[in-house]
Specification:
With about 300 residues, the protein is mainly α. It has 13 helices and no strands.
Amino acid sequence: MSAYLRKRLLSFFIVLAGVSILSFLLITFSNTDPAEVIARRNYSGATEEMIEQVRIEMGLDKPMAKRYFDWLGGLFSGDMGISLYSFRPIREDFAAYFPTTLALTGLSLIWIVVISLPVGLLCARFKDGIFDHLTRGFTLLGICLPTFWLGFLLLIAFAVRLPIFSVVPAPGLKGLLLPSFTLAVPVICAFIRLFRSSLLGELNRDYVVYARARGLSPRRILLHHVMRNALPPIIILFCQYLGYMIAGGAVVEKVFSLSGIGSYLISSVLAADSNAVATCIVIIASVFVISNLVGDIASRLLCPWMVRETNV
């Protein structure tokens, strides 16, 4: 396990180093000159001398390698630079927008666990029944539905036709129910299909035949033996989708008018704010890589014998 952790941590730092380099190159070779944007916004009729002065103050006149390590050191120290979209420190923008994204993602994860695990178990327990066929049809439809279209449908249904919710998000938990469910639906559908397939694969293994020969009930076999062995791929996918939902929540946040990191990222892209975009990319990539690492470790701790079988 220690050798595996060392290998994964090494790959973790390599990936983050690559992402940071690509993000810095995005800043460097962007068509937008940060010095020009700031100078023209702060001074009416900014001259080339004013722009050059701002460029010197921002350190854009330094060699590329020096600027990269200064920018990387700023990320580690919390100094993420100035946003060209809000003209505030990016650190302050993240402090303002990130809690909404965390709440949205956390509530979506609750939807995923509460719905996908019981439905997947029922589909495996009553394989090829009416419930199983209907669920497979709905999950296929849910995977294919674009999240923005599903969001608009939910708004029309539950904010216009049935005014249970408001079009403008309400404060607190109520304002996050529809957006979180919209974000969770494609993941729920993918989870149900994968969990069902994993359970059915385990039900054909030898230990299940032995458990049936001992007289154990199908419910006990499914819940106490099969489910644990079927969880590792679900855990890995669950952690992979964590990074996806933070980045992919941008569309949902825009549809439901939420002020989160996703909408901040879209606004930064439209404003050609290379500083904020690069910082968002690094942070989202870090969350994605860390969640993948956590998922692999959790699946190995849950079923260490499956890892030994794979290595053999």
